[in-house]
Amino acid sequence: MELHGMSAIQTAEAVARGELSPVAAVEGALTRIDERNPAVNAIAWLRDELALEDARAAEKRLASGASPRPLEGVPFTAKDLCAIADGPSNQGSRAFAGARPGVDAHVVRRLKDAGAILVATTTSSEFGNRPTTESDLFGATRNPWNTERTSGGSSGGAGVSAALGFTPLNQASDGGGSIRIPSFCCGVYGIKPARARISMGPLLSEEWGGLDVYGPITRTVADAAAFLDATAGPATGDPYWAPPPEQSFLSATREEPRLRVAVAYARNGLPMDAACENAVRETAELLAAMGHQVTEAQPDLLPLEEPFVVVTTIGIGGMELTTEQLELLEDRTRLIFDVAPYVSAVDYARALRRMHAHSRRVLAFWEDFDVLITPTLSRPAPPIGEIAADMTKAWEDYREWLCWTWPFNVTGQPAANVPAGFSPGGMPVGVQIVGRAADERTVLAVSAQLERARPWADRRPPAW
Q: Which domain holds residue 159?
């Protein structure tokens, strides 16, 4: 098998057996990026020489007789919004271009401690504030299935990296869908973990009122589970902690549960593309054939919308920027900063209270069900530049396209995009699996069942 077709687990196993060297694995990733990235623009910064130094150090460590670590020699990427110790974290913005925090985020450090090797950072929208990856700093990151269409966002570079096999592990973040959106658009797997599952430290704390989380975008469910096993857990100073699972996340991918599954096709009368609705219908039929109890039902999510808009507005517009930095912002981002001062502290506190109060009502839905299956997005990836072309109507575009993703950032539940075929136009579609609070293992188990029933890892873009 070609290196760029290998999963993270396959790569680590080959390194452990001595069949693949960490240097060869990193060189393969760098070659793949060099060959394919010019067409898609998914890489923000290439850590080539430093990655090779890390790979040589890993080889020396193994040669000394040390035991291989769980992700030994596995190349990975980090999103441009995430802090890295020896390179830039630009925040997708000209206002922070070239900024070097000088420290690894805990999620990056834990991947390194597990033996994985950082080879690059991936593109993002400015501050992660758009569901497409288009910015003044990087330009547009293109969909490998059709380069005239969006890769999704804000973790678009991570989605493209997974789809084209740049690296098998890709760190991403999700404050309203930014893991699931690019996973859907690029035809790969992505799971938004439960709130506080992975520490946001040491530089970040309660981002966007707790809406934002770190997580993986991968080609396989098992790789995502291995990412969670390596990175999950609190750190000193975190505002809250998720309860640890009783067993590993990876072990969940080998289970065959029979569950109570709720299925929803459309929400609050919002338009839904037939391909996306059919993907849910076919998935529901498949789950029923597996022996799951499938019922059409959904919780009331509409009351979450207004507080979500308030909290995300302050999450972005409440950042402390200099006058010079404000002048460098994109127009649509500057609009958020101009609006934010008119949201009072009382308005913000009330929004948080309403958000959490209704989340309790939504979470009660899972007393009767184990998972909820929905469309991930309302339609396949649109052309670059189409979503929110009129910035004054951006939320109308977002609320239609993302109607199923952001509510579960509000509730803090784990949710994953599972590839589910293609539209008549040849673009990927997917379904979302939403689990109980802090129950990623069930989401992973169902995802893996679907992966075994209709494998997607070998469905590769034309640019492959």
A: 3-453
Q: What are phi and psi of 190, to 5 degrees?
A: -150, 135
Question: Is 60 annotated as catalytic?
Answer: no
Least Cα distance to 451 among 270, 252, 181, 268 occurs for 252
CATH assignment at residue 217: 3.90.1300.10
Q: How far is CA 38 from the centre of its chain?
A: 22
* Count of domains for the chain: 1
Q: Annotated catalytic residue: which of 7, 93, 151, 154?
A: 154
CA-closest candidate to residue 161, choices 463, 379, 387: 463
432 within domain boundaries? yes
Q: What is the pTM of this model?
A: 0.98
142 close to 39: Cβ distance less than 8 angstroms: yes
Give tens-digit pLDDT for 101-135: 999 999 999 999 999 999 999 999 999 999 999 99
Note if 154 is an active site residue: yes
Question: 124, 161, 178, 359: which one is catalytic?
Answer: 178
- 196 inside domain: yes
Q: Round to whole Å and give the CA distance between 54 and 48.
A: 10
**Residue 79 appears among annotated catalytic residues:** yes
Mean pLDDT of the chain: 97
